[in-house]
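Practice record 12: protein with tryptophan.
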Amino acid sequence: MARILTGIQSSGRPHLGNILGAIVPAIELSRNPDNESFFFIADLHSLTTLKSGLQRQEFVRAIAATWLAFGFDYKKNVFWRQSRVQEHTELAWYLNCFTPFPMLSNATSFKEKSEKLFDVNAGLFTYPVLQAADILLYDANIIPVGKDQKQHLEMTKDIASKFNQSVGETILALPQPQIDERMMTIPGLDGMKMSKSYNNYIDIFLPEKELKKVLKKIRSDSEGLEEPKNPEKDITFKLYSLIASESDVATMRQNYLNGGYGYGHAKQALLECMLEKFAEPRRIFNYYMENEQELEAILVAGETKARAIAQETIAKVRKVLGFSS
Ligand code: ADP
Ligand code: TRP
């Protein structure tokens, strides 16, 4: 049985890019009866950039509600908040002491973030160590992530082997990253990678009127209504082809090529398609956002399952390091 594990930082409400690029594919993997999935909300990681407790709580809820809205089976699997299982921070400290300083200072994501951000704190620096702890606590074998996380997973393996070598026993299992090089990059409103940091994202859970306003902002060329248009170059068409049925995509392609079909028509079709395709996820999302206690109960039950496993690993680590008898 494969143990799959992945986390999403609670640094914003999930957008279409997170959903189609990370959440939906992970849920598909979790549907294989031979797999056991460990999906968590990396709220401790979000503290490296987000300081507001109120916002964090809202984002944690929104991320949890999104996993549930897209059908994650929290009963069969394990679903929790990283901060509620203290073993994550405990193991991260131990691993810090086995992580060579240059490994962290050469990390690409640290270099990028420290050039961009005003607040370059030590948490940003040791971010990959906490991520290693997240993975190693649960003996996870498969870690589905995007290309940007490849280096973090290599570091996890290096840290685990350094630890094992140093204590002279194989205590921590080395994970297998599952990086899909072809993984889709969902374009944002401006055609760049959709990201909360570029403020070009689509929040599919917005009320209809607001969603319509957002979709109107999708960049398009300036051809007039009557002119034929190139679907391959257009962002609205790209987004539509990610979610609409094959035959609807073919119809829209033909409309573009024929002319007499404006970008406004395409955006309206995209809106209708989103409302239809995501009707059930939107309903479930709103349900959990309104029924906080139910969501809380699900996460608390998940914490209990996660903690039981994390405690087994931590007990072995404490023992070999001389912190317990
Ligand atoms: P953001 O760029 O909005 O800050 P994160 O870095 O928090 O998003 O990403 C969370 C997950 O969603 C990661 O697994 C990432 O690979 C995936 N993801 C984010 N944006 C996109 C996108 N535009 N296309 C595909 N996957 C994405
Ligand atoms: N760093 C990951 C991201 O930004 C989130 C994350 C934290 C994670 N811990 C993890 C992903 C463990 C996979 C496994 O997307």
